[in-house]
Amino acid sequence: MKHRHLLLFPLLCLPFVLFSQVRPALDYYLPKINFNPTIPIPASYLGYEVGEWHVNHDQLVGYMRELDRVSDRISLQVYGRSHEGRPMLCLTITDPANHARLEEIKNTRSQIVDPAQSGKVDLKNLPAVNYMGYSIHGNEASGSNASMLVAYYLAAAQTPEVEQLLKNTVILLDPCFNPDGLQRFSSWVNSRHSLHGSPDPMGDEFNEPWPRGRYNHYWFDLNRDWLVVQQPESAGRVALFQEWHPNVLTDHHEMGSNSTFFFQPGVPTRVNPLTPAHNQELTAKIAEFHARLLSENRVQFFTGENFDDFYYGKGSTYPDVQGSIGILFEQASSRGSVQETDNGLLTFPYSVKNQVLASLSTLKAVGEMRLELNEYLRDFYKTALDEARKDEVKGYLFADNRDLPGRELLSLLMRHRIEVRNVAENATVNGQTFSSGNAFWVPSEQPQYRLVKAIFGRQTTFQDSIFYDISAWTLPDAFGIKWVSVSAKEFNPQWISKQTGVGLTSRYGVSRIAQPAYAYVIGAAGYEVPKVLAQLLEEGIRVKVAMKPFESDGQKFAAGSLVISSEKQPFDEAALLERMNNLSVELPVFAINNGLTTGGPDIGSSNFPVVHSPKILMLTGEGINPEAAGEIWHLLDTRYGIPVTMVNAERFSEVNLLKYNVLILPDGSYNKAPSPEKIREFANGGGTVVALGGVLRWLKNANLAALEFRNAAYDPTGRRPYEMYDEDRGAKRMAGAIFEAELDLSHPICFGYERPSLPMFLGDTLFVETTKNPYATPAIFSKEPLLAGYIHLKQKPLVANSAAVTVGGIGRGRMICFAGNPNFRAFWYGTNRLFANAIFFGNLVSGEAVEKK
Ligand SMILES: [Zn+2]
């Protein structure tokens, strides 16, 4: 007990320097009850008490494996691997008798989410499922450190309450949602840990270097990825979620050090309208359990503010659209071992303890509310189907089967157990035809109706104007594929295959070319054209690109098609033919046997310039948005296979830029700016600069780009009540919405696109004027551009007819500027090619068709 007093009331007792020396014992964290002595306490495995050091991922895994080995209440599975190959763990914790019938429990649970079967299920003997997850942000480490104590408690506690709890509940405990981030953070913070530490917030211990441990390997925020599932960490846990249909999913985070403790419900006006009101009522009922335990322990906390339940990509919101209750916990972060805060000294053990308390209160709530939660889960899917039958939208058609984004959307829907059918007969809606064998149908009338709406909906009106995260994510728009919502009146049941499940056809039905040809053509369209182009260039193959459409023997080719002549290649004709017949991606290759074309320029024309292999340098470091930089790295590395040299802006002055021909400047404030002169020199020498988002402001101020911005500042005038301040400020922020852009399909930046309109993502109120040069705005937002999401009424007109992409020129170089983010969170497949085209074809834009600086 002495320790407890020391840690809770530090200022009363001792000078702070002693706190890092205090060894918080087990009874600081856990109630004094009987524990099974054969179960090792965390300290006996770690060699230190929880909270003395930050646990690293290897140690965390080691301890969990040890518990699995000794406890008949626990079975451990590795459900996936992080990018860096770390195991993702799920501990299934329940009564040994339940362990013997896990498959039966799972089966029953899959029946209760199926309205066709749920009426028959007897809920009386069905355990609740409680999915507990920790530290999805790696530098919010109190969660993962607490998970060892929670797992120990569940394995070792010998009380009638815990035994009853384990009979009533199956617990899925994931000690770390983000292994790579936790490892990065723990290495940093432990490496700055002193025995006599200073709690001064300025210290290195509390200020880890860029990109920080919040993110995964490619600097993605995994707590935005639950819905869009673009990272391996999410894929595994979404599969677990869909396998178990948990009643509750907890998500343990940390927030600003001067705060206290938060648990949901959050802001009532910011709950996604697809989430039933009963979800929030149950969240509030569970909250009473947290409130009681935290109050008993004299912990300050708050609810109903700051955090919301709108975007379904967050761990605490994804469950809410599937009959489950997602619960967000936020503990004020000590970051290091002890930090000075407005609330006095905040120690790491104290923050770990609060996460333990919130875990124990959740366990108790789920155990006691078992029947109510299972009934809610069952009724959620029953009412979903009732609502679906009343919906005027009968379902959604989308294409296409052949290209990667269509297939990726299909696989995403499958991951969420959404029913999809093949289109068996050509379907035409609003003048758009979806051909049989190449399109899919997603019916509204299915148990996952609400999630289907969350994925295909285009919401533009909102109860609140403040969003914690993006306000729109309509996935078929983001994936850039052809799709349409179909009303009952337009729907024809003949279109749809009678067979359940989906079959994929061959992508293009590519056939081999038998004889060496004069030249080979790869069509312009296709998500993976840049991948193939990068490979061919890397092998030294000379690839040219058609700047104009052409025709050969009746076959038409769009501008942007790649042409590989047999002449002047590093391979002989036979080897080149072999190479063209074996592209790594299934794309059709056409053989051309006459240099004289039947339309457009001839093959030897200067309208087929040579494409240069990109040598890319991307700036990173303070002042640059790690997520934006990570999205680019991830795209180039994992999807296009293009090497990128990442250089911290601090070292930029040391770099010999002659080695590079493309410089990428990701979104950011650039408050630790690189030398503008060096960038000017690079461009003058003929380099291509690709600039995105916030850096455009810096480029203009540094006099590097001829850009004009539309004034986005909307300031309320006259006298306003002080209480309106937060709302006025929040309403002006645009957290991320979808706008329609019009493409100039003849421009090299738009090569490969076939439809003139394209949804694009804007995550900032940066509105760019179109260029004075009439040819230098290849993508422009349309007159009524808002497709989905929130934007302030006064700002909406500023987007209309503003530039989405501009091409500037400095000396012999080109500067391609993106107002928005074409690579947002890896699920914006639809705009990735604009970005890739900027890299490959930016330097081919005529010097007369750019906005000169
Ligand atoms: Zn967090």
3D architecture notes:
The chain folds into four domains: 24-334, Aminopeptidase (3-Layer(aba) Sandwich); 391-495, no CATH class; 519-592, 2-Layer Sandwich (Alpha-Beta Plaits), CATH 3.30.70; 616-852, Rossmann fold. A hairpin with a 2-residue loop joins strand 31 and strand 32. The longest helix is centred in the middle third of the chain and has 21 residues, at 348-368. The strands form eight sheets. Strands 22, 23, 24, 25, 27, 28, 30, 31, 32 and 33 form a ten-stranded mixed β-sheet that branches. Strands 1-2-4-3-5-7-6 form a seven-stranded mixed β-sheet, with helices on both faces. Strands 11-14-10-15 form a four-stranded antiparallel β-sheet, covered by helices on one side. With 853 residues, the chain is α+β, with helices and mostly antiparallel strands. Helix 9 crosses helix 14 (348-368). The protein starts with a helix and ends with a strand. The chain is 31% helix and 19% strand. Mean pLDDT is 94; it is low at 1-21. It is built from 26 helices and 33 strands. It binds zinc ion (ZN). The site of zinc ion (ZN) has 3 residues, from loops. Zinc ion binds next to loops.
The dominant shape is: globular
- Low-confidence spans: pLDDT under 50, at least 5 residues? 1-21
State the CATH architecture of the largest domain: 3-Layer(aba) Sandwich
CATH structural class of the largest domain: Alpha Beta
Number of strands: 33
- Stated plainly, the CATH topology of the largest domain is called Aminopeptidase
> What is the CA–CA distance across the termini?
70 Å
Name of the CATH superfamily of the largest domain: Zn peptidases
How many domains, as an integer? 4
Structural class: alpha+beta
Strand content: 15-25%
**What are the distinct ligands in this entry?**
zinc ion
Helix content: 25-40%
